[in-house]
Amino acid sequence: MQKGKAAAQCCHATLSNYKDALKLTPSAVKSWEYNGQPKVTLKVGTEEEMIDLVKQARKAGIVANYIRDAGRTQVASGTKTVAAIGPGNETIQVKKDPYQK
Question: What 3-state DSSP class applies to 34?
Answer without folding.
Answer: helix
